[in-house]
Task: structure prediction
Amino acid sequence: MSVTAINTATTRTQPSPFEIGFMTFVEITEDPRTGALPSAHQRARETIEQARLADQVGLDLFAVGEHHRTDFVGSAPPMVLAAAAEATERIRLTSSVTVLSSEDPVRVWEQFATLDQFSGGRAEIIAGRGSYTESFPLFGHDLADYADLFREKLDLLLEIRARNPITWKGRFRPALDNADIGPRALQDELPIWVGVGGTLASAISTGRLGLPMAMALLLGPITYHEQTVEMYRAAAERAGHDPAALRTSINLHGYVSRTSRRARDTMYPYFARGMMDNNHQRGKGFTMPRTAFDAQTSPNAGLVVGSPQEVIDKLLAYHEIYGLDRALIQMGFGGMPQKDVLDAIELLGTEVAPVVRREVAARKARTA
Result:
């Protein structure tokens, strides 16, 4: 790691006007160039190295997604995040997402509150319904209850955060009678975000609850979530929440390298392989031609790929369109070699993030 990277991490102490994080699913994919297939142990250790560097170069967040198949190591994000906590000092640690519909909210709270204690108050939860549904039959849940499970379990998780002991009753888990649930979080209020895909009903219910919203954008136009944000803020206002006080985030795929061409050439074969091998039905994803990939890296499309300046411009465009507070970028999807992932993390932290933060801070000052 460069001296510049170290200095960036040691001098940034104020809250960021725009948070930028690194996200991973810890997937295991055969390298399309070499045919090598990493072991679960290798991918686990690489992930902690990624978290350590993200912290050292001054990124704001390290996030781990949840999937329950052997081509993903991240079936237990709190475990991965706990290991990352011991390798880092300042970076915030979050799931992306916790599939709350198939989890026990009591156990989710216990795990993340414990993480919060061990990490010195750096834990967060992004709770979602889950676009991958393999966890539902695995833990004995009926997909017909997909929406009801999430609503009830989110309600319980918020109740646990708000008070202890707790008395509660629902449909899908045994009732709680004056239950003492510990530990409590170190933070005064452990952040709980709601992950939202393309369903407007999810955005509306999240706004009604006054919770921060984390959107996901895989492919499509950069403006894909305009209505999502509009409906979210309108629902929040109708429910008596101040829309200006609510936080929004977006989860994206991307890659940053020294030049535009190098970024696209490095990312494409791995991203295309990952979309085929690690999609919802293993090995039955969709084929992405290079022309389609390049189109998705254009200024008006969703992927955040290119030189540091291109990535800066794209993140500022996202902020301008949505008024975002943060972005989580998944770099390395599809089994990209560790060196290439680490190179991108360093550039994101040392050359992209400082510029984006300064520009967003200046925009906010002008607006104020």
